[in-house]
Amino acid sequence: MTASSKSLYAVAARPGPALAGPGGRPGRPAGSAEGIVSSLSSRAATPPLLAVRDVRIRHAPTGRELVRGVSFDLAPGRVVGIVGESGSGKTLTCRAALGILPRHLELSGGSIVLAGEDVTTFDEDRWTRERGSTLAAVFQDPASYLNPSLPVGSQVAEVLRVKTGLRRREARSRTLELFASVHLRDPDVVYGQYPFELSGGMLQRVLIAAAVSAGPRILVADEATTALDVTVQAEILDLLADLREGSGLSLVVVSHDLAVVAQLCDEVLVMRHGEVVEQGQTDRVLHRPEHEYTRLLLAEHDQFGLDRVLEGRAS
Ligand SMILES: Nc1ncnc2c1ncn2[C@@H]1O[C@H](COP(=O)(O)OP(=O)(O)OP(=O)(O)O)[C@@H](O)[C@H]1O
Question: What pLDDT does residue 306 have?
Fold first, then answer.
C-alpha cells in the first residue's frame, strides 16, 4: 500500500467480508460454485453481508494470476477465517474485498458483493463512504498506521469527526467510550499518550477502536495478532470475540496460524499458492481435514497449543 493510504484514517476507512463453503473434496477446490450454492441455500434465510464468488486477482503487467477462484460468504455475526502459508493470497483476497488492491493488481474474474451491491461499480467516493461505516480493517504492525507525533486519542477523535461528523468535544468523549469498550485501562490517560508510549497490544486496541468507531458491520483482521506475544494475542482475540458477541460484528480473520483461526472462526478457508485447497466448518476442517496440505498445517502446528484449542471448542 502507498504511504499516504497507510494512515489511521485509511484504516478506519477500509471495509471487509465472510464465508460459507463446503468441505474441500480431494481433487477440487472446496470453494466451487456448486458447493457454494448448496451452502447458500442451507442458509437462505440470512443473506450474506459479503459474497465473494470465484475471485481472481492478476498482476496486470505480467498477466500472472496471484489468486485463483476464491469464494466465500460472510453472514451477519459470523466469523470466517483464511489460513495458509506466506504468499498464498490471503491478504490480496481481503484487499480486493476492501477495495484496496495494490497498484498493478486487478480483479480479473469473479464478483464481490457487499451488502447486496457489486463492488466493481463503486468509485473512490463510494468506497470512502463504505469504509468505516460498512467495513473496516486492522492489520499487523499497528504503529505504522498512527502518526508518531500526535497523541493517539486525538487521532481516533479525528477519524470520528471525519466519518461521523461529530464535533470536537463529542468526538473526544466518544473516543473515551471506545477506548473503554476495547478494554484500554485509563482511557483518559491513553487519550493523551503518543504511539511510542504504548505497547503493541495497546496500539492494536487503539486501532480496533478506530476501526469500529463508525459502526461497521464487517471487520477484517489481517494478521492482527501476529506481532504480539501469546498472552496479548489471546487478549486481542477475546476482544474480537466480544465485539462479535456484543455488536453482532462479522469478522474475516486472516492468519498463518491455525490456532488463531480455530479460536474465533465458524468457517475456514485454507489457501495455498493462490487457491483455496479446503473450505468448511472450522470444527470439521480441524478434526477431519480432507486435503493433504491442511493435514500438513495441522501436523506442523505446535501440538500442545492446537490440542488445547480443540479441547476448548469441544467443551
Ligand atoms: N503489490 C504486489 N505486486 C506483485 N505481487 C504481489 C503484490 N502483493 C502481493 N503479491 C504477490 O501475490 C501473492 C499473494 O500475496 P498475499 O500478500 O496475498 O499473500 P499472503 O497469503 O497474505 O501472505 P503473507 O502471510 O506473507 O502476507 C504472493 O505471491 C505475493 O508475492
Answer: 63
